[in-house]
Hints:
A: 5 helices, B: 2 domains, seven-stranded parallel beta sheet, 10 helices, 8 strands, nucleotide-binding (chain B)
Amino acid sequence: MKPIRVLIAKPGLDGHDRGAKLIARALRDAGMEVIYTGLRQTPEQIVAAAVQEDVDVIGMSLLSGAHNYLFPRVVELLKEQDADDILIVGGGVIPDDDIPALKEAGIAEIFTPGTTTTQMIEFIKTNIKR
Amino acid sequence: MENLIQLSLKGNKRACAKLITLVENYPEEAEKVLKEIHQYTGKAHIIGITGPPGAGKSTLTDKLTKGLVDQGYKVGIIAIDPTSPYSGGSILGDRIRMQDLALNTNVFIRSMGTRGYLGGLSKYTKNALKVLDAAGYDYIIIETVGVGQSEVDIVKTADTILMIMVPGLGDDIQSIKAGIMEIGDIFVINKSDLFGADRTATEVNMMLDLSMNMDRRPPVIKVIASKNEGIDDLIAEIKSHIDYLKESGRLIERRTKNLKLEVVELIESELRKIVITHTDSENRLDKEVINILNKEKNMYEVRDEFLGGINGKKD
């Protein structure tokens, strides 16, 4: 069976990737192939990597506060590439008030502090579009 | 699928990526795709980059690719990292060292997990390679997993093999052992600003001087990939190796030999399927294994019985 492929990305100017690495590890242990691209990625780089790697999911982690621009920008670029079948989730320090607009923009789910890795894995497994 | 193939041949990256997914995961579709693209393959030059974990294979791949792209070539990269034998998952982190390449229109990078395959590649690396070859990439770089001493499958796949070494990984006895040290076409001492680089280079040179039956002695070159030093020399050596392969007829020889192995493997895997499905009704294999354990039979008798079953079916 084809393993689920996930791109874990750190968009923008945010040098903190403990969380992203932890998630990558948890998804690996759940049997997924996790592509980690490193820090400070532009939305363009994230989308290019997602297209070349043909991932099922993009998970973005952001703690800097620029999520309202960067997350929707990734969705927009994916649409331009006809790759909007990819499931997009986000996580990090995201204020509750921002979440409805992000979901409206096409982010399937936002995982805030306190979410367990099991919840994320379940969400991905039930929501990927195959 | 036909549409994907046409788009990929024209250079569409999304189509190319989708085809790689097909040939990596779905054997029936893979067969159809590979049959269709067969006539477009064989043009790319395949560079294998191998060496121990942490030697700088990804960084070197990044710099080498930039150098080749600057010279006007299109470069495809297949970067392989290990799959967990426990969960089946993997962390594919080679792209971290290749961030600047993501947006380059002349570069395509694909990460693959080994998925239980032990030779330093993944089982379907060759399939992915053919998709990239057909898509028009001039050079395809295969970066193996970090290897130990005997993961030499890259020999069966690449035209030019770069063996990446770093100072300080052991004494000169390491360089006279069999296996991984015998497969390099070009030896690259990376991190050559570190203490011991000259000694490592000398040891490799001495090892190579002992190999009498070579019509081409592999060069040993020192680079510092992170600082982009020595990369031009490396590209020159790769091109010189390509010239040698072509002029000496070794390229055809090498590819013919590898192709033969690939065909044999293909036949073997099909035979295995036939033996198991045609003769393993009612878990016969499991029962016979118990018989072997209990010393009621030996494994050669069991083999003959299984193969006899196939012959019986033919008649």
